[in-house]
Each structure stands twice: as C-alpha cells, then as structure tokens.
Design a protein that fits this description.
The protein has about 180 residues and is an all-beta fold. The chain contains no helices and 14 strands.
Length: about 180
C-alpha cells in the first residue's frame, strides 16, 4: 500500500521549487520524510526519503543561504506514542550534516512551519502541550542544530490552539499565525 502526502512548498535561489511531506511506500506502518526539488517545468531535479525512525514527516523544506537545506517536521521513534520536533540539515548534495530532535520524551510536539533567520539558523513553530492544553511552541535553532531558546504561547483553552505559520517581520521580530478554539471571553 503506497501513498504520498505533501505539506510544504518553497522557492529556491535558482528559481526552482522544494516540496516536502511524507511517503508510506517504505514498509508496513512506516512513513518516511519525502523531499523533492523540481524545476520550473515540473521535472525532478532530486528526490530524497529520510527514514529516521518509525514515522517521519516534513512540513517545511528550505534552502539556506549557503545552498544547503533544512527539513523540519516531526519524528516518532519506534515504541513511542509521542512525536518530537525534528530538524535535519543537509548539504547541497543532500548529505545529512546533522539530525536533531527538540522535544521532551513524554510530550507530543510537531513542527508546522519554519523560516530561515538572518544568522543562518531557523525559527520553528509547532504545537506542544502545557498542563494538558494544546499550545504554540516557538523555538530558535542555530545553524549547527543547537536549540538557542524555546517558548510556549497559548490561550489555555481546554479546546486548544493550533499553529500554522511563522514569519520574520521587517524589524526582526516573529509573527505567529494559527487558530484557537477558545470562545469569546
């Protein structure tokens, strides 16, 4: 049983496109991160599947300022019911330079979006839990994969908050966009 799903789309410096998501074509109950670079006529420039653990999904694939790539999403190790925020950095030939997770062992967290920061690192936005409430988690990761800081934001609604996008403003701040199921109050 084979299937592919795509979550992310971005442009490259040479005018081509990056697509990312996951594939179920790698084995029973396993999903691998699926990465593509395609040109302006739709032809595949390169394709890569990263099978880190049991379930690996990418939500954002970005070309960095050096012509290398960041893939951001979530991974779920075998034997665990929790997903972890996950980032992979690859060189221009798609060789993995580092592969890191950024979640506590007993908390389910997923990256939904990421953007390049001026220092060559990433700002990632995902969901997490705080006192059983679904909240946003914003984290800054440097170009070497080190977590520089992390903060959680939420309405503390018993229905939850769902993040969608993060953007860097012209002043160097971060804007987060998503939804909340909290009613008027």
């Amino acid at each position: 049983f084979s299937y592919d799903n795509f979550f992310g789309f971005s442009l490259t410096g040479d005018g081509n496109y990056l697509l990312c998501g996951y594939t179920g074509s790698i084995g029973a109950n396993r999903e691998g991160a699926l990465l593509y670079k395609i040109n302006t006529t739709g032809s595949i420039v390169w394709q890569k599947i990263i099978q880190h653990t049991l379930i690996d999904h990418t939500h954002k694939l970005l070309e960095n300022y050096e012509g290398a790539y960041y893939a951001a999403g979530h991974t779920q190790p075998a034997g665990s019911s929790n997903g972890a925020m996950w980032v992979v950095k690859m060189d221009s030939a798609q060789n993995i330079l580092w592969d890191s997770t950024y979640s506590s062992p007993n908390v389910t967290e997923h990256i939904h979006d990421a953007e390049l920061t001026p220092d060559g690192g990433l700002i990632v936005l995902g969901h997490s839990y705080d006192n059983s409430f679904l909240v946003y988690r914003l984290a800054k990761i440097d170009k070497n994969g080190k977590l520089q800081w992390s903060k959680k934001y939420g309405t503390m609604s018993n229905l939850g908050d769902t993040p969608y996008e993060v953007r860097i403003t012209s002043h160097g701040n971060y804007g987060m966009f998503g939804s909340s199921e909290a009613g008027p109050g």
